Please model this.
Amino acid sequence: MEPHAPGTGNDVVKGKASRWRRSWSRVEEDALIGCLIDIVNDGWKTDNGFKAGFQRELEKGMRKIFPGTGLVANPHINSKIHVWKKEYSALSDLLSKSGIGWNSTTSMIDVEDEGVWEAQTGRPTGKGDSLQVLAFLLEMA
Model:
């Protein structure tokens, strides 16, 4: 797929089973992370998660950054947060294993040796690992 300008609406790809899904750019993901940090600082996060309406606040923040964007709370922002939660869960599970740790300086996974990684993931290191590591989630948890 060719690069696109964030929020132009030309950033959908046809996926499996003939359904359309939005493809987020790195710039958009970074902006959403910034908006999440802003709403946490504004008191939208509670002990049990976020207050009702937080996705609308994220939508407002994204529209300030990308005026005229087609990004809306549901399904776009809701879906991206859902994906991040799944990735966080997988990362959290992986980090609970012996021989695997988190390096907060480099924001990378540290592994004692390649054998530990292969035993836990079933794959050799560097072979198509696409887990998006979200350091801010690890800090907020």
In short: Residues 1-11, 127-133 have pLDDT under 50 and may be disordered.
